[in-house]
Amino acid sequence: MNKVVTFGEIMLRLSTERHLRFGQSKAFAATYGGGEFNVAVSLANYGIDAEFVTRIPDNEIGHCALKEMRKMNVNSSNVLFGGDRLGVYFLETGAGNRGSNVVYDRANSAIATVEPGTFNWEKIFEGKTWFHFSGITAAISENAEEECLIAIKTAHKLGLTISCDLNYRSKLWKYGKEPKDVMPEMLKYCNIILGDIDTAFFMLGKEKINPDYTDEASLPSLYGKLFELCPNLKVAATTLRYSISASHQRIGGILFDGKQIYKAAVKEITPVVDRVGTGDAFMGGLIYSLIKDTNNKQKALEFAVAACCLKHTIVGDYNLATLEEVENIINGDGSAKVSR
Amino acid sequence: MNKVVTFGEIMLRLSTERHLRFGQSKAFAATYGGGEFNVAVSLANYGIDAEFVTRIPDNEIGHCALKEMRKMNVNSSNVLFGGDRLGVYFLETGAGNRGSNVVYDRANSAIATVEPGTFNWEKIFEGKTWFHFSGITAAISENAEEECLIAIKTAHKLGLTISCDLNYRSKLWKYGKEPKDVMPEMLKYCNIILGDIDTAFFMLGKEKINPDYTDEASLPSLYGKLFELCPNLKVAATTLRYSISASHQRIGGILFDGKQIYKAAVKEITPVVDRVGTGDAFMGGLIYSLIKDTNNKQKALEFAVAACCLKHTIVGDYNLATLEEVENIINGDGSAKVSR
Amino acid sequence: MNKVVTFGEIMLRLSTERHLRFGQSKAFAATYGGGEFNVAVSLANYGIDAEFVTRIPDNEIGHCALKEMRKMNVNSSNVLFGGDRLGVYFLETGAGNRGSNVVYDRANSAIATVEPGTFNWEKIFEGKTWFHFSGITAAISENAEEECLIAIKTAHKLGLTISCDLNYRSKLWKYGKEPKDVMPEMLKYCNIILGDIDTAFFMLGKEKINPDYTDEASLPSLYGKLFELCPNLKVAATTLRYSISASHQRIGGILFDGKQIYKAAVKEITPVVDRVGTGDAFMGGLIYSLIKDTNNKQKALEFAVAACCLKHTIVGDYNLATLEEVENIINGDGSAKVSR
Amino acid sequence: MNKVVTFGEIMLRLSTERHLRFGQSKAFAATYGGGEFNVAVSLANYGIDAEFVTRIPDNEIGHCALKEMRKMNVNSSNVLFGGDRLGVYFLETGAGNRGSNVVYDRANSAIATVEPGTFNWEKIFEGKTWFHFSGITAAISENAEEECLIAIKTAHKLGLTISCDLNYRSKLWKYGKEPKDVMPEMLKYCNIILGDIDTAFFMLGKEKINPDYTDEASLPSLYGKLFELCPNLKVAATTLRYSISASHQRIGGILFDGKQIYKAAVKEITPVVDRVGTGDAFMGGLIYSLIKDTNNKQKALEFAVAACCLKHTIVGDYNLATLEEVENIINGDGSAKVSR
Amino acid sequence: MNKVVTFGEIMLRLSTERHLRFGQSKAFAATYGGGEFNVAVSLANYGIDAEFVTRIPDNEIGHCALKEMRKMNVNSSNVLFGGDRLGVYFLETGAGNRGSNVVYDRANSAIATVEPGTFNWEKIFEGKTWFHFSGITAAISENAEEECLIAIKTAHKLGLTISCDLNYRSKLWKYGKEPKDVMPEMLKYCNIILGDIDTAFFMLGKEKINPDYTDEASLPSLYGKLFELCPNLKVAATTLRYSISASHQRIGGILFDGKQIYKAAVKEITPVVDRVGTGDAFMGGLIYSLIKDTNNKQKALEFAVAACCLKHTIVGDYNLATLEEVENIINGDGSAKVSR
Amino acid sequence: MNKVVTFGEIMLRLSTERHLRFGQSKAFAATYGGGEFNVAVSLANYGIDAEFVTRIPDNEIGHCALKEMRKMNVNSSNVLFGGDRLGVYFLETGAGNRGSNVVYDRANSAIATVEPGTFNWEKIFEGKTWFHFSGITAAISENAEEECLIAIKTAHKLGLTISCDLNYRSKLWKYGKEPKDVMPEMLKYCNIILGDIDTAFFMLGKEKINPDYTDEASLPSLYGKLFELCPNLKVAATTLRYSISASHQRIGGILFDGKQIYKAAVKEITPVVDRVGTGDAFMGGLIYSLIKDTNNKQKALEFAVAACCLKHTIVGDYNLATLEEVENIINGDGSAKVSR
């Protein structure tokens, strides 16, 4: 049976409600999330044995994050206590042509200040088959980046499948290194990469490109370069996102397995209840599908797109759609009738 | 003056808010509703003398339901106390391509466990002109079904107009009888039936059909069979519902009076605030219009469709649209300007 | 540096939430606003020195309004205490084809009962460059209308630019005078007028017209008549509003400067979070742009339209969009991506 | 069977929650109440046929008040529509040594502006046995006072028992008359009066006194003077209230029936959930008890005190305590165990 | 290391907030709890390995209960899915002299309808040292009672310590058996019993007694009879509860170990935030202390009393007080200073 | 006219509501406060011209804090933008014997990382008469401490009255210096000091003492030592706080002016709505009174105690009691009757 480990940061998210702006809010909804944790929740919801590894402060707010992991059935047995604070981010949810707004307050978090070598990855990976991380972990601090690289190398050594969501965030990467300084080393161990091709090229320190995803014939060679740069790569996937407005998105996907291009039809999403974490929902769906049937790439892509679509209707950072709900979308039933 | 009696169940509805899923909710909005009660509320809002007959438990929750009836100006003077519990249903309101979700917890409710013969229908129907019930009452328990049949027969004997909303719910009908065992007897007394033709055929135990409502020429003979099976039938109407997503519905309607087909133009509904009870709003509008002008079938159908549309914008089970608001929609003003 | 004074009423707004109807609401959201105050807030948000002049009662509710002015950085140093009550209005926010509903309860408010001559306009206007008022102030009471006229004349004498939003409200004008009795005198001092041409004609006591805003060639002569009737007029602007439903609006604009017609492209707004005050947001944007670059009429109109669009996504009476957000819309980015 | 009519004003109450001050509140809880309506609700709760007569505006807010009457099972069949507004009051609930704060905004309400002679009291009182009013109705406007006097005289002529709660409010009585100008005429028809002796003397235009309620021997002659001034008086009762803090009250009572003094033991109330309407709860309890057993004055007083105590634990203007709960308090069980 | 298993029902609790009565509530706070689950949560909070065994329906509401178990770190690996519904109870929280009100709607719950023999207790108890149940499980249905007896006998056979909280609920026991029919058999295996002596005698079918807990000398013989009737009994404890009002409780305790009486000083509790589950908090504290130091009976009793006190300040069914907080109370610091 | 400047940190406070624990909360109430800001708000409420000086980040959360300053009528014209984050603290409000709990997350805040010398104190103090700071500013970082010392010395040079609230927080002082390293230098310029004598001695690096405030005769010599150590000291005051429980406090006060001891009677406070900021309310009251009548020390102390008491009933960090409310308490009316 497959067992997946994800590593990264879990934050307290403080969001305004009912489209209020920050300055109007007398209360913030408090939830907990973070890219790699969100992936673990998706997997746990689909029935996969999923574990999240991080460090949280040993205070009441850290314990809230731990309760959330347990509630969502994510294994937290290798979570460490330490550091001074849980990272925080503030979210103002937009509408129509007013975009959502994120204010990060995550510097010096428990995981950002972890001493590299703190986690016993050999032990953590015992009996595990898959390791997932994202570019965010490499972006928050040098310490986190170094710890992540140790994890990647250990996972590689132990034969785990390794996946990465590139997740470039321009507001992070403040600690003195650029993506091209660290990501090439990390990505070379990866078997599955999710991200835009141009982001991948940027992170790998290559020349800037402007991929045209509608020009299907051009894609194999573009993705092919990625395969050249990442010798362990088996699957590269991209979420196609067309942002009509904060309340209306269109989502499709592309996948390349080194041999052929797979495409998923673009789906309309309106209204958008919560835009955050929809990429993580895609990633979670992709991992799940590849675990279940590694050879059915078309299904994997469609599952990822459908999961991503459903996440847009769900409040909070992580996807709460069930396996059955995702399957229904794939099977063409997006009519969303009342079940009664 | 017309006086209408409806008979059925009123439930406590517990719904999540702001699109939260069940597992995210720390509170449930508490409202009260049920198919036949919802129809009575619609009629009371339009100025009709409407009475709702049911049984509720003599506990605090039952009294909450009674307060709701009074608040909505629905006559409750023949409501009986008894039984152990008020039926409950849980509602998770969907959005976009995530459908709404209903969890019923209505078994063994006060009305489901009523002893047939408990209500004094002769007295209840004194001075009344119309009796309405729905297929839900026949579906919840044998006791309720038998009591309902007594009511129907008494209403027929006393010369009341009888209407039925077929309202097939696959999650009910658990007590050992199928629709075809009881509905034919009930429907034969009915003067007005609301429902899909295929549902009607199914409930009447006939062969399955797939009506094509866009093939207008085929409809007279299809509805005609219904008229053959239900000798008292005067009007058969169908709500045409096209579910684009949980947030986007398209509603039209068809009516057959034994002679000709009437059609109402399809209206766009976006966003959907609350999908539940929109069929009851259609029924309420139909009864009201037929009472007001029994000969104007086209107006009756358009009124029902407009009422149904407006209900989609209203929180809770029953329709709160005013007569004036429904008329405005019929008169083509759906632009919904601010009234000031 | 430009300093703007606006004069009018600030009210307590009590609105239902989550699309509830009045009869369903156990609580009302309490905010504070009013046409001319809303304009002042817009200007303050854009960095303009803006002052609001009014009279409020010296009770706790009046002080709440004062706190709101301060919070929004609107100069309140000439606000007077007096009178018995703050005006109130109730708002039920619609959705889809159910329109929003306003119940006014603003009669006998502190500003409506002000004794004409109460404010020392000579002193208030010291160092100020712009005076703004609206047709609402003329509509609430004879006292307010007379005070407003004193303000207008004083502003004119002192050489301030004068702007007016016609803002016709049929539910007001209850004190015995009609618009044509007072507005012509007021408008003759105005340099900028915002409103529909037919409303302007109506308020000026002229024959009713039905302008066709799509017939661009016809507009110069129509607006030209306005310029004839208002000898100080420099700019006349009109918000083009197409109300598809309470949740879907389309907004464009037209501006005439005595020489040529400027047009702004129509923008789609869906969903509408809050429809109230969108005209004030237009006005605020127009004043700001004309102050910043009085010669760029095209930019002024586009800024006004963009500000108006963004206001539809913001809860409450006044616009909270930032300068940067408005500029982004003008520059064509309505895709509303998450900023992170 | 006894049927009681009360006459007065019903207002929209807008209160802050969780001890917030006005300036901190972004929302107000909306409930409906008023002295005489509150008495009617108490009686309806105890099973008495109770009717409330008033005038409300024919707008959405007026209809909310009507819904509340119906919900609480108070007969509203003689409520008239008319006037411009429903009276409003704002309530800031105190705690500890910070008192609650009321801001009235009730001038020019529908009932305050009623034309005397509007109500058909002869018809209203048909089949009724008891009429209740309070000093508030006399205080809000001359029109209301005159209408109330017509009601009183008609009730007297038709032989109804008449009760009055003196309810002196210094913030009212703004219309040019003082209590001593109108209350003597009103009180001379009264059979039951609730109020402090000094308030009664003040309203009757007599010299100021300082009654010492602990000097039991002095009370018969003090109350006796009241009986002299009010020839129809049968029962005079006083709520003894000791306000330790906004959260801690002590309530007792005294009753004089022209022959002897009855006393009810003082009860501790902590915490106070809602102080408003506790006097009306006393009045409602007194009327109920006197209807049920006119001769048991001791029981009547104790019932009134117990009802008053329980009201302090209930949110809103009127008492929701059940007959059984009041009886339990009288029978000495204030331990308030969980019922399960 | 000790591992505790508790067996019973977990319910959805729907409670009114801010002291509202049922009929005033438009929403119910939704939490999950039940006597034996609450004990498990207490133990998990103190660091004990605690497992809860029950049956829940395989619907969304059942899954909510499961999420709650996980969140609270209670082992749920032997929870079964089955049955039709999760039990529900409604709670109206009182204040002052108005008591809290519970409406049970728990008949036919998943655990009440479990087929005896469904659970594999031999396997469940592997590696476990303690089994806890309560009289509620015996009261809800014959099926639950029989399953519980199987568990008790299996636990006894396997040498686990067995504890029982008598928890008599007069509103339960509806299935045809009385406590005396089943409790004697159950209690004879128990090592620790919590309850009033008179309740114990009643459940054991003995003559009614009226123990005077202040007469310390009388207690050894009273408890001694219990020890005679329950041959395995080692510790009998009683929570002394003095209910001054719904907001003010006084809590003490008595414990008898077959040899001597231990007493804990009575503590004042004001205000009471949530009265429900305080007995379970006592039980949880008692089990924890006896596990940690079985010989220190005085400490065990004081720990149980302190835990019970703290629970009164916590919303929901189960105790969230930490080990440190309980210890602080025992050490005499109830001054509750701000920790900062 | 007196003008007061306070200097320190303003934080975002995130607090649970309705006594929920952190782990139960799905939302945090968001308010803004901090010791020295709270003092400025008190003064502004009493009509004093009060300014707050700090540094806030130029992001949305920083702007929220700025809006709060303006709303509360506190001059913010010398507030600087800079740094990365606004300090945050989490508050769990206790009840009964469960204390409130504060989790600080204020490290690296905008003010803690300010470069000493950033503020232009000479300019800030122009026309000002009083400077207030507290021991918290010295505790948060070396930078803040150094900036504060510059401010103190400048204020002293310019002849302002200087006051300090010692405000010892053991969870702060993490940056390498102890109070005794910096406070003696700061306090030697102070004219008014608020704090416990033992805290003062501790901060001044003197031997630990255990003052007995009930031994009045001992106090002059104890406070006298403070006067010896602080050559500019004119008034030393101490808040006497007796914490009965989190919901019940008793507050008194002592003041020494170098010549005699003044005492204020102890007041009962129950319930405590919000304990935070009550010391700042004391300080604000003390400064106000000394400004108004520097010679009436008894009145100053009583005003401070009354203000402190009232703050306990007010949600949030700062005091919203009005001058009139404080005066009423001093004049002995703590009965908190409803004002209507």
UniProtKB/TrEMBL annotation, chains A, B, C, D, E, F:
GO molecular function: kinase activity
Keyword set, alphabetical order: Kinase, Transferase
Transmembrane segments: none
This protein's record includes keyword Transferase: yes
Location of the Carbohydrate kinase PfkB domain: 1-311
Pfam families with a match to the protein in the record: PfkB (PF00294)
PANTHER family per UniProt: 2-DEHYDRO-3-DEOXYGLUCONOKINASE_2-DEHYDRO-3-DEOXYGALACTONOKINASE, SUGAR KINASE
Family designation: Belongs to the carbohydrate kinase PfkB family.
Protein name: Sugar kinase
